[in-house]
């Protein structure tokens, strides 16, 4: 789901997510009468007439409403979605959808004619195949995103009048003017040197490649139509596992009509007031109030994204308030080793090739690897980033060192000198990236305050501004830690006790654990060396 600004231009209304299983269920008459009052055919705005068939369609399939709701524009936020028409106490269910309105991946693969044809290319006629098909240029290739492609083809099929899901598909936005998947070259320029630009382009290329394979399964399918459908799917699919209360052991992806009208609460404007739940036993899906709600309130569920990068890529919106929480993608060439060429570099190049052949390392032909960067040094993604930084500066004398210290090119802490060099090299990579942007942090800060807060220009500005904040903050952290490597174990212990003593801080834990470990190991090596020297003199 997502806010209406993440949904594009309303067709009649912005819709957020998910879908059906089994035969349709007739709604009890008491619910049918109630739904007619709760979901009026005319709710104002362009295209409202199209909502009548969708409302009736929901009723016929068994949707139940325990609270009076309308669909319209929220005067507080300017977003279109579901509006409460009466007070509701915390904990009460607002609406519930039966299993036949929860459209899962399995369902669209089984019901979708185009997907069945696509699956038959690889013998996957039951819809469960990955979709390996002949490309337009000859040869064969595999669908890169089979789940999203299956949903997209199903949406396109169901647009036709008379199709079972047409009333719901008709309520989806006709366009997504500020969604990264549909960015043009001018939009991408707003990202400047942001690594996110490459992520967006890779995403766009992947959709184009999937289209080349899927086009043959549906006559007269255009790339524009396919992009629209893939964008609609990306911004509306639900992952049901986390909503099942432990009822699902594996993830189930779904699209759910009406549930996708629930928007994300704009940061600093309103707070979430509802939450979804999926019953794995019955297959039903519901939204309930998480606090007392007043008449006229919109329904808001926090999608859980903490960074602008993720909310932009998935739902097409950013928030100025989330700039301090930014994380970012990071690309660099693992093969760009500092220092002169020699035996060590030759050993590492062979180790990279082995890791790639074993399927343990994802790298482009030129050695480019992808990482996640945030103000963290102990998370899983940070461990991988630091592992590669250690690998790049390591000077192994033989392959045994790599086998012991750097499985699949991700090195664990090696020594004080290696750790310090790795952090220094990482700082240099980030400094080079920062310098490659077209504007400074200060210039972007001014633009953020003065620019219109809408469209791709605003989105890309907020993203790159946040990235520069992360890059600057990370560089400062690395600079603050560097002097610690000069301390003795006893002096470092004192510094940790005085300045790096917050165990809840990711950075402090790195100093307490990793930096302390390599400094103590170096101290022990120094002590042993001195002992040997003393014994040699005595002899």
Oligomer: single chain
Largest sheet properties: 4 strands, antiparallel
Radius of gyration over all CA atoms, rounded: 27 Å
Q: What number is the mean pLDDT?
A: 85
Shape: elongated
Q: In terms of structural class, how would the helical and strand content be classed?
A: alpha+beta
Work out the helix count.
18
Low-confidence runs: 1-50, 122-129, 135-140
Number of strands: 13
Query: How far from one another are the termini?
Result: 77 Å
Explain what this protein looks like in three dimensions.
The chain is of the alpha+beta class and 539 residues long. Helix content is 43%, strand content 10%. It is built from 18 helices and 13 strands. It has helices at residues 29-38, 51-60, 105-111, 113-119, 146-157, 166-169, 185-189, 196-214, 223-234, 308-315, 343-357, 380-393, 399-405, 416-436, 441-450, 455-481, 489-499, 506-538, and strands at 64-65, 69-73, 80-84, 93-97, 103-104, 132-134, 140-142, 238-239, 253-255, 274-278, 285-289, 328-333, 368-373. The strands form 5 sheets. Strands 1-4-11-10 form a 4-stranded antiparallel beta sheet. The chain has a 3-stranded antiparallel beta sheet with strand order 5-9-8. Strands 2-3 form a two-stranded antiparallel sheet. It is elongated. The protein starts with 28 loop residues before the first helix and ends with a helix.
